Amino acid sequence: MSDPNKATITAEKEALNLKLPPIVRPPEDIGVDTPAQSKLLNYRRSKEQQKTINQLVIDGAKRSLDRTLDKRTPPKPDCLFKKFILIEELMKSLINEVSNDFEKSMKRYLVRSVLVKPPVKWLEDEGGPLPKSPEGLDYSNPWHSSYVQTRNQISANLHIVHPTMKILLDLGYTTFSNSVLLDLTGIRAKGPIDCESLKNDLSIQARKAEEKIMNTWYPKVINLFTKKETLEAIKPEKLDAFYNCVSTLMSNQLKDFLKRTVEGFVKLFDQEDQRGLPIFKMELTFDDDKMEFYPTFQDLEDVVLGLVERITEALQNVQTVPSWLSGTSPAVNLDTQLPEHVLQWALTTLKFAVHHNLEGARKHYEMYVEKYNWLLDGTADEMIETFQAEEHTFDEYTEFIGRFFSLASEIMLLPQWVHYPMVRLDCEDLKIGLTNKAKTFANILLNDIASKHRKENESICSEFEAIKEHALKTPETTEEMMDLISYVEKARTTGIQELALRIKESKRRMSYFLDVFLFSQEDLALNSAILMWPSKINPIFDENDELIENAKHKKENELIAKREKLILEIEKESRRMEEFTEFAELDRMQQYVTDVRQLQKRTQESEEAVQFINKEEELFKWELTKYPELDKLKVNIEPYQKFFNLVLKWQRTEKRWMDGGFLDLNGESMEADVDEFSREMFKTLKFFQMKQKKELQEKRKAAKRRSLGEERLEEEPKENPTITMCSTVMEQIKVFKVQTHLMTFSKALVGAIYIIQC
């Protein structure tokens, strides 16, 4: 016999050399909505409609036949029935033929669509008949012995059927089947609880449950494998496999235990069954002008998800049986980690459930934000700053303040607790914070208008104090006395009336403040003083009348004394003026200038005294006194003042030129200054000569009127010292002018010599 395997390989090679029948490529219009495709798509529907079509055709044929027969003589019933049978058979044959043609075309299209030519060169069809399949090949395989061998190996290594495994399985079932790591019943019945408290409680419970399992179930398992009869039937080389089976069974039991605990915890948050859903305490807090949740949504979510992680952390340090028995270090633990997909499912489900159950609390928070966040985001501050920057009446202030007080009342009337399926939301802290914030803004405005009220009261008191101070002040001058009389008269009429209206308005403001504002002791004293001033001012006016009468009598006597004193002063100044005509010493010119200035100053003071006296006379409505001697005195002083100053200036200039450096002198400038002095002095000389001549003429006229003798009239006038000084200075200027020309020539000569030497 030939080798079966070799025959099989040969048959496979021959099969690969076979040529396929001709491959017909599909038409290019595949995928286009052709009539054939429409037939294929409507194939099922056509099947259902065939019966309807057949029935319609038969019914139509019957009606046509009936109409034909109605036009003729009615045939016999047997003949009519035979014709109907023939027509019906003909229609069925026609329908069958059409159906067969349609099915063949669909099959042909299906084959052409599926059997597409592959891109293999050696599969090209070369024509000829189809090859025949090989015959007589042996495809049998001796698998039975392999099957028996494998079955025996499984029986030898299948430790799960060991009796000890059944005991271990029963022990795990008894321990874990009706229990979970955490007792989650009654959590909702406890009422609202802090998330951290729940976390701590369940963590403690998990630790205790873990300790209980390790103190009950695990010792029993270890005790089970410390018996000699447990391992008697197991070969030494199979011992590791046996313990691996034990570890796998224990691991599966613990994983199932933890998985059921996780599933039970996730079920607490089932949206369709909220009977076990815990109720967490949450607060809306107000801190640093911010509205926040405590704990935050993220904190709550972290606690819930953290409990799942806490469950998965339990029973992770359970030693395998061989590790415990051998006491090796480090210890080998069972694989009790939950599968990743279970953990992700739990975390995803819980995260979605937490977000869903917090939606109500979030919307309640958004309600607070929408309605009251303008108190915190700076909008209210801007409103108040804008309002304070503008001018507003007291009533507009109270209306604006009332809005904030109304808002505070509205916030306090909101519910303290809001209950949701998973959350009891405590809003008290936020309510108190927002209420205080609204009251703070109201108090800002209250302090503003209270400050304005205080300033207004201080202004009223100041005006009353000013009236009192003015009314009781003794006038120093007549003008002050007249001003005081006018001031008090105005204060008695319009001033007091205006203050009375302002006090009335202040009373109205006080009535409002008593309900909403707490006055300080200083403000209370000020308010009291405002109300007392109207009764205190009348005695002050009576005292002022007596004061004015005494002052008026005193000032009249003082005015008379001042007029008499002024007359004496003018006479004294006139005598001093006559002394100027006798000044004839050029060396004392500085003293003459000083004397003229002192006389001018005294004349100015006398003129101011005249103005004061005239003003006083106007106040007392007396006739104004006039002083022509003073005007004449002012006119006579001015020429002497100019003359003395001119001479003094000439003397100083001459000394500076004569005592200064020779080379520093400027001949042209000096000549111009000397000419200027000469002209001014000539004018002065002419003025005094004309004045002397005029005075002489006046004296002659006066003497003639007095009938004096001719000899006296023809007497020569006395020499005038002032004219003499003018002539002397003129001569000095002429002499200096000649010297100036000589100095100019000398300076030019010196310059020429210096140039020649250089």
Automatic annotation (TrEMBL):
GO CC terms in record: dynein complex
Coiled-coil residues: 556-616
Keyword terms, alphabetized: Coiled coil
UniProt xrefs under InterPro entries: DHC
Biological process according to GO: microtubule-based movement
GO molecular function: dynein intermediate chain binding; dynein light intermediate chain binding
Organism domain of life: Eukaryota
The protein, known as: Dynein heavy chain 12, axonemal
Lineage of the species this protein comes from: Eukaryota, Metazoa, Chordata, Craniata, Vertebrata
